[in-house]
Write the structure tokens for this entry.
Amino acid sequence: MVAPPDNDVLWARSLHHTHNGSPALSGVSLGVREGEILAVHGPRGCGKTTLLRCLAGQTAPQEGEVWFNSAPVHTMSPFQRERLRRDRFAWIDPEPTLVPELTAWENAALPLLLRGTPRRAAKAAALEWLERLDIGACAKRRPRALLQAQRQRVAVARALAAEPAVLFADEPTATLHSAEGAQVLRTLTAAARSHRITVVLATYDTQVAALADRVVALLDGRRVNAPRTAEVEGRDACSLSV
Ligand SMILES: Nc1ncnc2c1ncn2[C@@H]1O[C@H](COP(=O)(O)OP(=O)(O)OP(=O)(O)O)[C@@H](O)[C@H]1O
């Protein structure tokens, strides 16, 4: 096994994965640099979610290697991968997945509480991120009392409050209307840049991909050349949002 380059926080080599025999990834390799926002862009079904799951240690690829810093994720036990996910990674789904019995702030604080952060500190961090996402007033409400867009903001606050090394965001604004989605993405990318959080963002939307520092394009489970416009727009968007 050859360890990844030093400046890559995540590195994947020749990932292959099938779901019930149908190929989802066919030899994808990529590196993610520390602190960068990388968009994985492509049409529905091209393998974005499968790639993010392999990188995040949720799915063990059938072939290939995934490294986080100098640790080989592909050879870790399920317990080690779970610890890695809990302590170093955060994940945002397209639909908010919150614990219905907990309030918004308790949901946002949950990853910190699971890591053993004292309750007072975890609550302070959760409230701070809920405020930044303009839902501080909802902190004591349970998910069923929130709108879908508010629930997704709680999920984003939960991911950012944990200050992960890598944040995986799988179509995080797909269910939001465009103005709402743009605001959530601006907060997410600005927070990631100011806290040096590496972001891997799956999206089929070229405008969302343009917010990233770099775009990796997928088609039918393989890497293809990224659209040039997205990269150019991405650089412009970066300078605006820093
Ligand atoms: N659990 C599963 N069982 C069977 N096939 C699956 C499963 N998950 C994904 N697939 C298939 O694998 C391929 C890649 O799916 P994947 O979800 O990774 O792509 P995607 O680009 O994220 O798509 P989307 O944007 O629709 O989520 C698709 O053909 C999909 O139908």
